[in-house]
Amino acid sequence: MADSKWKKAGITVLATLIIIVFLFPVYWMVKTSVTPITELYNNPPHLLPVKATFDSYINNFVRNQDMIGYIGNSVVISLGTMLMTVVLAVPAAYALSRLKIKGKAIIMILLLSIQMLPGIMMAMPLYIMFSKVGLTDNYIGLILANLIHALPFAVITLRPFFLSLPSGLEEAASIDGCNKFTSFTRIILPLITPGLLTVAVFCFLFGWGDFIFALTLTTGDAVRPLTLGLYRFIGQYGTEWNNLMAVATLAALPIIIIFVSMQKYVVGGITAGSMKD
Amino acid sequence: MKAQNVQKGSKTNRGGIRFSDWNNYLFLLPALVFMAIFIIYPIFYNAVLSFKDVNVYNLNGKQNFVGFDNYIKTFKDQVFYIAAKNSVIFTVVSIFFQFVIGFALALLFNSKFPGRNLFRSLMLLAWMLPVVITGTVFQWMMSGDYGVINYFLQSIGLIDQPINWLSEGNTALLGTIIANIWIGIPFNMIILLSGLQTLPEQLYEAAKLDGANRLLQFKHITLPLMRPTILVLLMLGIINTFKVFDLIFIMTAGGPVTSSTVLPIYAYQLSFSMFDFSHGASVSMIMFVLLILVAIVYLKMSNKEEAH
């Protein structure tokens, strides 16, 4: 017994060390963001913050109004991606798991293959298509582009949730006077809330993290998200890494908040969305 | 015909069958319409584009079919071969280390110890960060003069002089690979861990009784039983790593010159820097065909696995 206790302690220590090393980049991002510019180019670098300053945050988010615009755009695009995906994917996943549909297998293979498409391959034709119909520099255009990867992911992730519900639910509902649509909205949907949350979280993250469509489908700052703002800052700020890391930290903040509050749904989503049939 | 369908439906269908089957398709319709317009059509459009001569000048004007000219142009371009080689190096090296490190961590996290769930979640955080952020942070850590990575390497005596990781031709690709390995480790770990947790414990107990040590257990129980998970993971890895664009674009933009140019970056440059859309389309069609080949191999392998 005592032996196994020591072993457990040993593993915990080892795991702690691994986590510290592994998460060092995240620590270094936050640490750099609160380092005064004069400290930044200290050689050797101070691994722990000597004196913290929030100058770079004030510079970027209070004085510079551009950033507020980028953040607003990111919020619109992420929420839009999330809502549109849920609206399209939930009924589709329901049909593909519980209703009689011809060609289910083909549609599932199609969805799986779409997930494998390189973003750049979609960005090129979309750019030409969208510039003809005025969807470049447009929230809707970016949201539609993000759906290309979010929609298949959402359907594939939601399907096992629908399948796990007992059969005959719809029949029972129809006896109680529900039709096909009301039994879906009133009976089935509330039962798959965990699945909905997983999908919603991931689709928000897809929208928040998108770079390639923001890069190719926008030409001005009007609808550009924070990811592109960060990229443009690399060019503008050059080596003012404290400013850059402040923007990066703030861009990571929603992810960290969502992650901490929705952890359970996130871990489920990763294994479900990637491996199940 | 109809009656037959309904009869069949009553046996196989879980839902109500008293409603017209057409209603079923209404649930699917919005998603299918979206996919037709914004996924299938663009792929088709991209294929057509690759046989035309569309560039920024004639985008809204007269465009001609030019047969395989764009493909010939691509196959005659030195940069295409450099990009293809870099893509292979990037994919193989990234996957190898992601997988090996991910597997080692999965084995570690498979044993019960206090704080396990917290640690596992913390690892995932790295995977969930937007790639733009990860790329920027690694760019800073790999900076030549003040980068913390050079500082670590110098203080343990591995290098004498600071390396300009991302601005030197022979280390730029390696720099992006290191960042990509960091991103991929948690995903590999989580998938392998969920596979490990389904393995029956009795097998290990029996092996222990037979006197098999850890290494033998790993070789003769863990690896064979994990085969399907490993295959799927590696195939997914190849497909997802082959198409990495954001990270490399942020860290090096494919440079210096072409030293870290991979196929997606090459296609991007043709279409969005040189605005030769058709030439870019031919490169992405080549990538598409390569990915389909990988997918076919994957399906064949998983069929074989099932037959086993």
Automatic annotation (TrEMBL), chain A:
- Topological relation to the membrane, as annotated: Multi-pass membrane protein
Q: Main subcellular localization, coarse class?
A: membrane
Q: Kindly list the residue ranges recorded as spanning the membrane.
A: 12-30, 70-94, 106-127, 139-158, 187-208, 241-260
Question: Keyword set for this entry?
Answer: Cell membrane, Membrane, Transmembrane, Transmembrane helix, Transport
The cellular location(s) given in this protein's UniProt record come to: Cell membrane
SUPFAM superfamilies the UniProt entry points to? MetI-like
Q: Which InterPro entries match?
A: BP-dep_ABC_trans_perm, MetI-like, MetI-like_sf
Q: Which residues form the ABC transmembrane type-1 domain?
A: 71-262
Q: Which family does it belong to?
A: Belongs to the binding-protein-dependent transport system permease family.
Tell me the protein's name.
Answer: Carbohydrate ABC transporter permease
State the organism of origin.
Paenibacillus oenotherae
List the taxonomic lineage: Bacteria, Bacillati, Bacillota, Bacilli, Bacillales
From TrEMBL, chain B:
Q: PROSITE patterns this protein is in?
A: ABC_TM1 (PS50928)
Organism domain of life: Bacteria
Primary location class: membrane
Q: Where in the cell is it found?
A: Cell membrane
Signal peptide, first to last residue: none
Q: InterPro entries in the record, alphabetically?
A: MetI-like (IPR000515), MetI-like_sf (IPR035906)
Query: What are the TM regions of this chain, as residue ranges?
Result: 24-44, 88-109, 121-142, 172-193, 230-257, 277-299
Q: Which residue ranges does the record assign to the ABC transmembrane type-1 domain?
A: 84-298
> Which Pfam families does the record match to this protein?
BPD_transp_1
Question: Which Gene3D superfamilies does this one have?
Answer: MetI-like
Report the membrane topology from the UniProt record: Multi-pass membrane protein
Keywords carried by this UniProt record: Cell membrane, Membrane, Transmembrane, Transmembrane helix, Transport
Member of which family? Belongs to the binding-protein-dependent transport system permease family.
The molecule here is called: Sugar ABC transporter permease
